Prior knowledge:
This protein is α/β, with parallel strands linked by helices. 35% of the residues lie in helices and 25% in strands. The chain folds into two domains: 5-101, 2-Layer Sandwich (Beta-Lactamase), CATH 3.30.450; 107-316, P-loop containing nucleotide triphosphate hydrolases (Rossmann fold). The chain is built from 14 helices and 13 strands. Strands 9-8-10-11-7-12-13 form a seven-stranded mixed beta sheet, sandwiched between helices. It has a six-stranded antiparallel beta sheet with strand order 3-2-1-6-5-4, covered by helices on one side. The longest helix has 15 residues, at 137-151.
Amino acid sequence: MAKIDAFFKLLADQGGSDLHMSSGSQPIVRISGEMERIKYSNLNNDELKSMLYEIAPEEKIKIFEETGDIDFGYEIPGLARYRANFFMQKNGISAVFRQIPSKILTADDLGLPPIAKKMAMLNKGLVLVTGPTGSGKSTTLAAIIDHANKERKDHILTIEDPIEFVHQPQGCLINHREVGRDTKSFTAALRGALREDPDIILVGEMRDLETIALALEAAATGHLVFGTLHTQSAGKTIDRIIDVFPANQQGQIRTTLSEALKGVIAQNLFRRIDKKGRCCALEILVVTSAISNLIREAKTFQIPSMIQTGKKFGMQSLDDGIMTLLQAGKIGAEDAYSKAVEKARFLQFLKTPPDEFS
């Protein structure tokens, strides 16, 4: 057993999501979104380096010493998997570990709306799950892939950095590929994917022009592609994709995206007040013919109003999702107000109105 494993057990026992190990500081766990220090002495660089190098693959250590950053996956059988990131800072080596539960939560466990399951059953197209870092995008995607795995008989190919949730084949054949270990890059893996007969492709992160272009190409040529982006809303997601491309290509990309994009789930995590843990508010965009026209005609600023009137298609605004959680007594009014788009809707629930509305 590695020395650091005791901290992972503590993280699991306390129901935390992240473990922070930083030279010059006590270890810290994130519980329900808040950072809490562990009663342990400040870590020095040599002690922490020894602890971290004990669990890192040799090739990852070499890359880390050359670059100062590295990502990889670490697993403790019977406990959990972890997404590890090592980095250098002023006081020495540091690391952050995100816990990935061994059990994949289903769409029903997460309370995802029926439209999420429908997206898992599409024949082709692009579906994006977006939100800030740490908003649960991977968990939502895992639930959608899990539904496809149970209900379809297809080939699912995942490309991740590192692999997070590990799906056991049920109705589908599933191949997990890790960037850096099984393939050189997202781009190389996506190029190869088009020759590997997948029906569903999961791209862990669409982080650059080439990856986005290849994901769009795969979606436009008969594959169902799932991916993540760090954006706050459905409308901004579309703008982000288009803005990645040079100006002279944006007209063509709008046309391709209007045809390939099938849906966007944008989410935000909230600390629960009714019990321990966190819950998620979703904004859901379903790309209808009317939405396709807005994308093609560069009128994405009209998308929020289309979401409001598209409830019969399964659409939902973020504020409606937040309001549902607030009225169910699951989240606090201050938290709801701080993350809402139209904050005036939530003023009536605040005990003390903020200065700008006083």
